[in-house]
């Protein structure tokens, strides 16, 4: 039976989460428009118009769900989730590793297209997250899905990891059937040539797999093949990748028996190849390879104790100014080690201080910071300075520097017995750190420090007492050491040989000397050099100055045209758009 109620808006009323299902009738005295802006006040004579307010977003969600008799929420539809299905979706780790490796290929292609090395460096930085998941099967799957079956580069990569039997999933150009225009476009897309950067990147992953699994001989052989391929290609987009290849090649040779410092070690055999690579990098202005190979050569010479050859390399080569910060830190460390062995402690201290400041702060670089700090502490002791105690309290250095703390305490007090006990107790650690021969030089410094402490404590002390306290062999040796300390300016004292005693002079005010000013000058110089290096490391948009010059030239040309039109009378004040008042 039809209802007598007038039909207003469609068959069914529109739901509203606020006002239910009732329509809203707006009369002449209706209020102002609704907050939503959709309901409007309509007045046409004396007629009434009914306006339906549309539902707001999320109105159904704002309404509380109905509850059953037990008080539980009723869930309609197939949205009920069991406890077993509520877990996260399982991801295949092999597929994830393959996808992560292949995601770097567009970065390498973009680096080649835009000629920007930052994209290649971004791909290299992702290796740390891929490294733990590398297996021959994953690498073989990436190669099979990336290269066509006729690619010689793919066959050589698969042969290196002993997976040459893997079948390729990407068809070759001769195996594709082209039917119609759409398949022809697909064929062209599939036949896109693989750039050499992808070959070298996969080669670096294979090198890392060999290095982590200690397959050193195979890694050295494969690295030699990679370097030959890089040498045949003259591409600047390969610079950062080739530097990494040479780095791993040197690591392989260092771990093959006989180990350095044996003269028959493989590190000696690769020196001509590294020197040839350095010469080629200088001619090609390959900054990344140049800086890396210089550091590797210094490491190579120091591993076999060829200090003279390392010094000649430093004097005959110029380290590139635009090298990466990590390579600069390594170069300064090796340079500081060379200068310390050559007894040039002041220069060694400057280089090692700069190396520790440039060392990365990430936990992965903690080993380099510890090694550089150990050598820096020994050099400071050889210079006659006592390192700050705060250095030994750093969380990343406290455990590694424990033997050196005992050494510093013995040198600071001037106790020769404690110094010798520290060497006997931690001699193996010092040999492993490469600081043992430098620490043996500290014996004279311990004696000088002891004499200095006695000169400050006593105004007059006999040579016999000095000989007993420092555990020297005879009074003549004590007399010789005291005379040398006076001559070197270690102590302010005078020696009476007839009576056999040392008389100390009065200690003056240190602030009346030039020592505070020199220390302040050194700190200012370090801050200024840090500022200059920070400015040099800033990046600016390429060719931005040319754009600014072009805009300036266009502005000057417009000004000339405008001035010429004003002179010719083509422009007046109204055309210029300004309001000028007569003067």
Automatic annotation (TrEMBL):
PANTHER family xref list: 26S PROTEASOME NON-ATPASE REGULATORY SUBUNIT 3 (PTHR10758:SF2), 26S PROTEASOME NON-ATPASE REGULATORY SUBUNIT 3/COP9 SIGNALOSOME COMPLEX SUBUNIT 3 (PTHR10758)
GO biological process: regulation of protein catabolic process; ubiquitin-dependent protein catabolic process
Organism: Mollisia scopiformis (Conifer needle endophyte fungus)
GO cellular component, one term: proteasome regulatory particle, lid subcomplex
Molecular function GO labels: enzyme regulator activity
Pfam families: PCI (PF01399), Rpn3_C (PF08375), TPR_PSMD3_N (PF25573)
Compositionally skewed regions (Basic and acidic residues) per UniProt: 553-567
UniProtKB keywords: Proteasome
Family listed: Belongs to the proteasome subunit S3 family.
Compositionally biased residues, Acidic residues: 568-583
Residues covered by the PCI domain: 329-509
Region feature Disordered, mapped onto this chain: 1-72, 553-583
Name this polypeptide is given: PCI domain-containing protein
Keyword NAD: no
